[in-house]
């Protein structure tokens, strides 16, 4: 499984970032540029949101759920990368 830390993610130019937390958590704070697709929706409709030509960076609150989802999507042939530490890593990066 591929991983990236928050500082490297933030240094990328225009990355495709997916926040898999619920909408309430997303509204109350998220990594800039992220879109919100909850984990259930993404896993059940991945072909609606992802294509195999792009790279996506996926995070949850702490990085645990996103690791599982990244593993599943990698096995399906998608280029997805887990954000180590999730949103917590973003909050506490300084």
Summed up, what is this model?
With 94 residues, this protein is of the alpha/beta class. It has helices at 6-10, 23-27, 39-44, 46-49, 64-75, 86-91; strands at residues 3-4, 16-19, 35-36, 55-59, 79-83. The radius of gyration is 12 Å and the shape is globular.
Strand content: 15-25%
The helix-strand sequence is: EHEHEHHEHEH
- Name the overall outline: globular
Helix content: 40-55%
Which regions have little confidence, pLDDT < 50, spanning 5+ residues?
A: none
Roughly what is the average pLDDT, rounded to an integer? Answer: 96
User: Nearest-angstrom radius of gyration?
Assistant: 12 Å
CATH class: Alpha Beta
Supply the key terms.
5-stranded parallel β-sheet, 40% helix, 5 strands, 94 residues, alpha/beta, globular, 6 helices, Oxidized Rhodanese, domain 1
Sequence-ordered SSE layout with sheet pairings:
Layout: E1 3-4, H1 6-10, E2 16-19, H2 23-27, E3 35-36, H3 39-44, H4 46-49, E4 55-59, H5 64-75, E5 79-83, H6 86-91
Explained architecture:
The chain is α/β, with parallel strands linked by helices and 94 residues long. It has a single domain (3-91), classed as Rhodanese-like domain (Oxidized Rhodanese, domain 1). It is 40% helix and 19% strand. The chain has six helices and five strands, in the order βαβαβααβαβα. The chain has helices at residues 6-10, 23-27, 39-44, 46-49, 64-75, 86-91; strands spanning 3-4, 16-19, 35-36, 55-59, 79-83. Strands 1-5-4-2-3 form a five-stranded parallel beta sheet. β2, α2 (23-27) and β3 form a beta-alpha-beta unit. The longest helix is centred in the C-terminal third of the chain and has 12 residues, at 64-75. It starts with a strand and ends with a helix.
């Amino acid at each position: 499984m591929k991983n990236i830390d928050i500082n490297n993610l933030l240094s990328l130019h225009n990355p495709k970032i997916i926040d898999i937390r619920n909408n309430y958590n997303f509204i109350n704070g998220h990594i800039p540029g992220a879109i919100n697709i909850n984990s259930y929706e993404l896993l059940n409709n991945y072909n609606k949101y992802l294509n195999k030509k792009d790279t996506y960076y996926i995070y949850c609150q702490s990085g645990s759920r996103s690791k599982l989802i990244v593993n599943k999507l990698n096995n399906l042939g998608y280029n997805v990368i887990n954000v180590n530490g999730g949103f917590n890593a973003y909050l506490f990066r300084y």
